[in-house]
TrEMBL record:
Residues 1-16 form the signal peptide. It comes from the Eukaryota. Its main location: membrane. This is Uncharacterized protein LOC113058061 isoform X2. One of its GO terms (cellular component) is membrane. The lineage of its organism: Eukaryota, Metazoa, Chordata, Craniata, Vertebrata.
C-alpha cells in the first residue's frame, strides 16, 4: 500500500512543471494551470521596498497590492488565504497556479534614496492540453471529415498525412473518401503539446443491392458497397461464383462448400459473406469488378442443380460539372465536362431544353454569339446526377481603335470593342466629351477628371463603358453610339481646346448567298444578298472583273464558269463563289405541234356538229308549229259549217 502511494506521489510530482518568469522580460509570461510559477521581481530584495500591483481597472481602491520590505511580505491582498504563495529573496513563488493569477502586473521598486522605478508584466494562465481524440465521419457527398478534439486553452492544430503536412489551424479537415494512410493531429498551446495518430481507411460507399434473381443488369458506383444476394439461406448449400474473362476463360471468385468459404484474392480483403441471408458483401467496388457472373448450385453428391447469370456494371459517379465558353468569329461554343462513366448530357437555356444525347467525355453546343441568359448543363448516369448553370453574356467583338486626332470618320462594327483615346495623359486635363444631338445644353456629356469619370450621361447605366488612362473604352458597341462627338480639354491655366470626331457604327457582313434565275428572253440573272449595312458589291467571272456596285447582274444564258460575289462595307468583308451552267434551251417538238393541231380539229368538228344539230332541231320545231296551226284552222272551219 505504501508503495502504491509513493508511486502516485511521484507521478503527481513529475506531472507538475515549474515555470520561470521575470519582470525584466518584454513578452508575456505563460504558465500552465496547476503548475508552479517562479516570478522573479528583483535579484536582491534587501535593497528595495517592493510594491506589486495587479491592475484591474487602474483604480487604487480596487487594484490588489502586495508590499515587500527587506524580502518579507508586509501587506498583501493579492494572495489572501493562499498558503501556497510565498516570497523568497525577491521572487514570488506560486506552487499551484490558478486562473485568477492571470492579469497585468506592475512592480514598483523604491531604493534607499527614495527613487522609484516601475516594470510591467502580463501573466497568462492556460489550461494544458488534455488527451487528443481523432474521429472520422464519412458523408454521402464523397467527403471524409477528420476531426480532432482536446481539452485546453488557445489550442492550435496541425495535421500530417503519412508524414506530409496538410493544413494548420483548423480542428477538422476534409479529405477524399478514398484517402488511406496514417493521419496525425498535433495540438499545442503556449504551455503544452500532444499528438494522436490513427490509421485511415477508405470510407464505405453507399449500399447497392443486386440479386441473381433479377433480369436486368446490376449497376453500382465505384466505391459503393455492393450487397449481392446469392441465395436466401446458404447454411446447407454448396455454391460457386464464376466471373467470365475476356479470353473466354473463367475465374472462380467465391465458393462455399461444407460451410467453408473461399475467396479469390481480388475480393478477399474487402468482402464478407452472410450465411443467414446468403449475401456476398463487396466493400468499395472497383471497375475491375464489372463483368458477367455465373452462379452455380450443387447437390451433396456433386451434381449441379441449376445456374444463374448476372451482368454487373461498375461505373464512376458524376464528378463536378464544368461549363466553359469559347467565342469564335460568328458563334460561340459552350463546353460541358465532368468525370464519370456512361454520361448523358442535357442542355437548357433559360429553362427551355436545347439538346440531349449520350456522349463520352466532353460535349459541346453551338449558340449564336448574341445569345443571352442562363444556360445549364445537366450530367447523369445510372446512379448519379450533377448540374452546372452559368450566365451567358454576349461575346466581346474584335477591338477597334480610333482617336480624336484623326480627321476621317471612325468606323466600328456593331458588337465590337471600341478604344477611343482622348489624350495621352488624362491627369493633366479636365475632359468633357459631348455627343452633339441638338447642339444645346441638353446634349449628353461625360466629364473626366484626373483620369476618372465624374459625371456621365453618355453611358445611360451601361457598365461596359469605362475610361482608363485617358481612353474611352466601349466593350460592346451599339447603334446608338453612332454620332458626332466633341472633346474639350481644359488646361490647368484655364485654356480650352476642342476636337471633333464622327463615329459610324455599321452591322458587319453576314453570310453571302448567290442565286440564279433563267428567263425566257435568253437572260441569266445572277443575284447576291447578305446582311449588313452600307453594302458594296463586286463581281468576277473566272477571275475577271465584271461590274461593281449592283446586287444583281445579267449575263448571257450560255455563260459558263465560276462567278464570285464579293460584299464589303467599312468594317467587314465576305465572298461567295458558285459554278455557272448555261440555261436549258426549250425546243418545241413536231409531235407536240401535231397533237396540238389534232386537238384543234377535233374541237372545231365538235363545234360544227353541234351547230348543225341546233339548226336541224330549230327547223323541225318550226314545221311542227305550222302543222298544228293548220289543223287548228281546219277544226275551226268544220265547226262553223255544222252550226
Amino acid at each position: 500500500m505504501m508503495l502504491i502511494f509513493g508511486l502516485m506521489l511521484l507521478l503527481q510530482t513529475a506531472a507538475c512543471v515549474e515555470w520561470n518568469c521575470s519582470f525584466n522580460q518584454s513578452d508575456p509570461c505563460y504558465t500552465a494551470l496547476g503548475d508552479k510559477l517562479n516570478l522573479v521581481m528583483v535579484r536582491d530584495a534587501s535593497e528595495y521596498d517592493l510594491k506589486l500591483k495587479k491592475r484591474i481597472d487602474n483604480n487604487k481602491k480596487v487594484d490588489q497590492i502586495c508590499r515587500v520590505k527587506y524580502s518579507n511580505k508586509k501587506e498583501c491582498d493579492l494572495y489572501n488565504n493562499r498558503t501556497e504563495v510565498t516570497v523568497i529573496n525577491g521572487t514570488v513563488l506560486i506552487k499551484r497556479v490558478i486562473r485568477s493569477d492571470s492579469g497585468n502586473y506592475t512592480l514598483t521598486l523604491t531604493d534607499s534614496d527614495g527613487r522609484e522605478t516601475s516594470r510591467d508584466l502580463q501573466v497568462i494562465v492556460e489550461a494544458p492540453i488534455g488527451s487528443v481524440n481523432v474521429s472520422i465521419i464519412c458523408s454521402s457527398s464523397g467527403v471524409m471529415r477528420v476531426s480532432c478534439s482536446s481539452e485546453g486553452d488557445q489550442l492550435l492544430y496541425n495535421w500530417t498525412l503519412n508524414g506530409g503536412p496538410l493544413m494548420d489551424g483548423n480542428s477538422s479537415i476534409d479529405l477524399d473518401e478514398e484517402t488511406d494512410g496514417n493521419i496525425s493531429c498535433s495540438v499545442k498551446n503556449h504551455v503544452s503539446h500532444t499528438q494522436k495518430t490513427i490509421r485511415l481507411q477508405p470510407c464505405p460507399g453507399p449500399d447497392r443491392f443486386c440479386s441473381f434473381n433479377q433480369s436486368d443488369s446490376c449497376y453500382a458506383a465505384v466505391g459503393d458497397k455492393l450487397n449481392l444476394l446469392l441465395v436466401r439461406d446458404a447454411r446447407d448449400q454448396e455454391l460457386h461464383l464464376y466471373k467470365m474473362l475476356m479470353d473466354s476463360r473463367e475465374l472462380e471468385v467465391f465458393r462455399i462448400k461444407n460451410k467453408e468459404e473461399k475467396k479469390h484474392e481480388s475480393i478477399r480483403n474487402r468482402s464478407e459473406f452472410i450465411f443467414d441471408n446468403g449475401t456476398l458483401i463487396i466493400n468499395r467496388v472497383i471497375r475491375a469488378d464489372s463483368g458477367n457472373y455465373r452462379l452455380e448450385f450443387y447437390h451433396s453428391d456433386g451434381s449441379r442443380t441449376f445456374k444463374k447469370h448476372l451482368l454487373i456494371n461498375i461505373e464512376a459517379p458524376i464528378g463536378s460539372v464544368e461549363v466553359t465558353i469559347n467565342c469564335s468569329s460568328n458563334q460561340r461554343s459552350v463546353f460541358c465536362s465532368s468525370d464519370g462513366d456512361q454520361l448523358l448530357y442535357n442542355w437548357t437555356l433559360n429553362g427551355e431544353i436545347l439538346e440531349q444525347g449520350p456522349m463520352n467525355g466532353n460535349t459541346t453546343i453551338q449558340l449564336n454569339e448574341g445569345t443571352d441568359g442562363d444556360i445549364s448543363c445537366s450530367v447523369k448516369n445510372h446512379f448519379s446526377h450533377a448540374q452546372k448553370t452559368i450566365r451567358l453574356k454576349p461575346c466581346p467583338g474584335p477591338v477597334r481603335f480610333c482617336s480624336f486626332n484623326q480627321t476621317d470618320p471612325c468606323y466600328t462594327a456593331l458588337g465590337d470593342k471600341l478604344h477611343l483615346p482622348m489624350v495621352l495623359n488624362a491627369i493633366e486635363y479636365d475632359l468633357k466629351i459631348r455627343k452633339k444631338i441638338y447642339n444645346t445644353q441638353d446634349d449628353p456629356v461625360c466629364r473626366v477628371k484626373q483620369g476618372r469619370i465624374k459625371e456621365c450621361d453618355l453611358n445611360n447605366n451601361r457598365t461596359e463603358l469605362t475610361v482608363i488612362n485617358g481612353t474611352l473604352i466601349i466593350n460592346r458597341v451599339i447603334r446608338a453610339d453612332s454620332g458626332n462627338y466633341t472633346l474639350t480639354l481644359s488646361h490647368s491655366d484655364g485654356t480650352e481646346t476642342s476636337r471633333d470626331l464622327q463615329v459610324i457604327v455599321e452591322a458587319p457582313i453576314g453570310s453571302v448567298n448567290v442565286s440564279i434565275i433563267c428567263s425566257s428572253s435568253g437572260v441569266m440573272r445572277v443575284s447576291c444578298s447578305s446582311e449588313g449595312d452600307q453594302l458594296l458589291y463586286n463581281w468576277t467571272l473566272n477571275g475577271g472583273p465584271l461590274m461593281d456596285g449592283n446586287s444583281s447582274i445579267d449575263l448571257d444564258e450560255r455563260t459558263d464558269g465560276d462567278i464570285s460575289c464579293s460584299v464589303k462595307n467599312h468594317v467587314s468583308h465576305a465572298q461567295k463563289t458558285i459554278r455557272l451552267k448555261p440555261c436549258p434551251v426549250y425546243v418545241v417538238s413536231v409531235v407536240f405541234v401535231l397533237v396540238w393541231c389534232l386537238q384543234l380539229m377535233v374541237l372545231f368538228g365538235l363545234l360544227g356538229t353541234f351547230h348543225i344539230y341546233m339548226r336541224h332541231t330549230s327547223g323541225k320545231k318550226q314545221e311542227d308549229q305550222k302543222v298544228r296551226m293548220r289543223r287548228f284552222r281546219e277544226r275551226h272551219e268544220h265547226t262553223a259549217e255544222d252550226s
